[in-house]
Amino acid sequence: MSHSCSSLKQKQEEESMHLHHFLLFNISGYSLFSVYGIAEGRPVHVRQRRLPCCGIGLGWFLFIVGFFLGAIPWYVGMFIMIVGRRIDHREKPGYIACTIAAILATIAVVLGVTKGAEDW
């Protein structure tokens, strides 16, 4: 008698667990928890080529040198970014910095030149 009573109790617990599982994972047809696969094995390290100009990239090199050479390297960096077909994703922030600096330098020069225009 005790054996059948314990199996009945165990069966009720299993049904309760199943109902609880159903409520957690199947409300409105959407899963509450995301399931991700686990990749096994050794991670694959892809070795990328070294960036030019001491490892900082041409874009950042042109940006830094632009402060010393009167903004001309910024225009070169902007030209490379606009015309270049294959730009390394690691160098793109430097080219964007050159573009922003070139635009700001152009605005500064235009405002500086036109400021004294009424003296003529």
From TrEMBL:
Supply the alphabetized keyword list: Membrane, Transmembrane, Transmembrane helix
- List all membrane-crossing ranges: 21-39, 59-83, 95-114
Please, which domain of life does this record's source organism belong to?
A: Eukaryota
Keyword Thylakoid found: no
Is Cell membrane set as a keyword in this record? no
Task: Output this protein's name.
Answer: 60S ribosomal protein L18a-like protein
**Annotated organism of origin:** Raphanus sativus (Radish)
